[in-house]
Amino acid sequence: MDIRAAIERWRASEKAETAAIVLADDDLQRVLAAWPMADRKTPAEVSGETWADLWREVVVDEAQLLEMTGLQTGRALQAWRRAVALRLVYPDGTLHRYGEMVLRKRLRDSLGGK
């Protein structure tokens, strides 16, 4: 299956409740903010239909991603693993729509609603 189609299939099953976890976890928010800028190699095709299958051939520069978060390595790695397990990040560098909404709201709030 084409990876874009596989991602869209998973995106269609996103749960809004996941935003509650993102709201409560600053480390996770940092990972989500850094993920679109992380270097990655994503295959054109995916074999299989599970979440693990979607990520199986993806190569992420984890050292770069973890460094971009500004967190200690162990904390950043745990947050990265949570982000993948909670299906908050996609191999193409995009984010779960509700996770992204949380980040945007937090940013707006910190900038005084601008």
Q: Could you give a quick summary of the protein structure above?
A:
The chain has helices spanning 3-11, 18-23, 26-34, 51-56, 62-69, 73-85, 97-110, and strands at 40-41, 59-60. With 114 residues, the protein is mainly α.
List the helices and strands and how they pair.
Blueprint: H1 3-11, H2 18-23, H3 26-34, E1 40-41, H4 51-56, E2 59-60, H5 62-69, H6 73-85, H7 97-110
Antiparallel strand pairs: 1-2
Structure description:
This protein has 114 residues and is mainly alpha-helical. It is 57% helix and 4% strand. The chain is built from seven helices and two strands; from the N terminus they run αααβαβααα. It has a two-stranded antiparallel ribbon with strand order 1-2. Helix 5 packs across helix 6. It is globular, with a radius of gyration of 14 Å.
